[in-house]
Amino acid sequence: MIKRLAFGGLFILSCTFASAQQLARVQEKGLVGFINKDGSFQITPQFKNAQDQSEGKIAVYDGSRWGFVDKDANYIIQPQYVNAKSFSQGMAMVKSASGWLYIDSLGQELKSISSKRVYEFNDGVAFYRDATNLVGLINNKQEVVLPPTYDVIRPFKDGYAKVAKNKKWGVIDNQGKEVVAPNYDDIGDFNVGLVWAKKQNNWFLVSGQKEIALPGISKIENIENPDFVLVQQGNKIGFMASDGKWVIPATYDDARNFQEGLAPVKLNGKWGYIDTTGKMVIPTAYQDALSFSPEGLAAVKDSKWGFIDKNAKVIIPFQYEITAALTFKKQEKGFIDGLARVKLNGKWGFIDTKGNLLGNKWFDNAELFQN
User: Fold this and answer.
1) CA dist., res. 144 & res. 125, Å (int)
2) Which residue in 82, 297, 303, 371 is deepest, having the highest Cβ count within 10 Å?
3) Which range is the signal sequence, renumbered to this chain (predicted)?
4) Residue 216's Cα: distance from chain center in Å?
5) Does 136 reside within a domain?
6) The domain boundary residue, chosen from 87, 111, 135
7) What whole-number distance in Å separates Cα of residue 97 and Cα of residue 112?
8) Pick from 321, 316, 318, 333: which is nearest to 368 by CA?
9) Which of 111, 126, 149 is where one domain is finished?
10) CB-CB contact of 331 with 324 (8 Å)
C-alpha cells in the first residue's frame, strides 16, 4: 500500500542520493539490460522494457507492471505501476490505475499541488496548471516558483525555457524570471546569454532587453557560440558575431557549428572544414560531416561513416551508420567521453577513439551512457 505524504522533511531526506556510475541501456533478443563503460554487463538483459538510469535508480517493466531497481537489479520499489518515468530531483512520475502521480525514492506517494495533471521535473522544476489552464512552475518541495502565467512553457534546456503568452514567445529561467519578454512570433533556445527571435519576417539577436535587427536574414540556427552564430542570407550560410556583424561571409550551401576551432561547411554538394578565419583547412570531399569532438575526431561520411582527425587522416574506417533510430531517446552523434555509438550490420555498439569495439559486443539497440 502506498502512503500519501505531503512534501516535507521525509522527502528532503529521500532526495539525498549518491552519484551513480554511468550505465548504457541495451537490448538483446527483446530484453533490456545495462552495460558499464568497460563493456561488461552491470545488469544482464532481463526486462521487457526500462528507462535510462537516473539518480541511481532504474524504472523497469517486467511484462506486467513497472517498478524500480538499483544498479544490481535489486528491486527498490516493487512492480506495481501501469507506467513509470525516470527519477529527477528525488522523485519520479508513475501511473497507477487512477492516473499519474509523484513518488519519492521509497515509493511513497507525494501529493501534487496541480489541479490538472503532474509533469516530469526538468532542471529543478516542473510545470503545473491550475483552474485557469495557465502554466507555472513548482520545485520538488511543491513550492510555487512561478504562479500560472503562460499559455505554454517548453521543456527547460540548461536552465532556460521558451514561453508563450497571447501567441507571443519569450524566455524564462528556472527561477521563473523573464529573461526575454514574450514579444516575438518565434524564438530559439536561449544559450550563452543569447537567442534568436523573429517578428513577422524580421530576424533578431536578443540578449535580455537588447535586440539587434538583422535585415535581409532568412534564418538563424540555435546558438552554441556567440562569436560564430550560424546565419542564412538568401540561400547561403555564414557566421555572425553576437553584435550582428559578419565574421565569415554567407558563401556556403550549408554549415554546422564551430567546435574545437573548426566548422563543417558544404560547397557544391560536398562537406569539408574551415577554421575561425574562414580558411578551408580540410577540403570538401565528404557526403556529410559533423563537428569535431574534444577527442579531436569528427564523423564524416563517404557512403558509410568513419572518423577523421584534424589533419583529415582517417582514424576509423568508413563502415558505420551513426544516425539513431526513433527508438533512441538521446540523439547525440560522434564521440562523447571517449566513446561513439555506431551501427554495423544492423547491430549497435560503442567504439573507442582507436575503433575498438567496447566489450567486443553488438546489440539490437543501445542508448547513450547515463548517470
Assistant:
1) 10
2) 297
3) 1-20
4) 32
5) no
6) 111
7) 17
8) 333
9) 111
10) yes
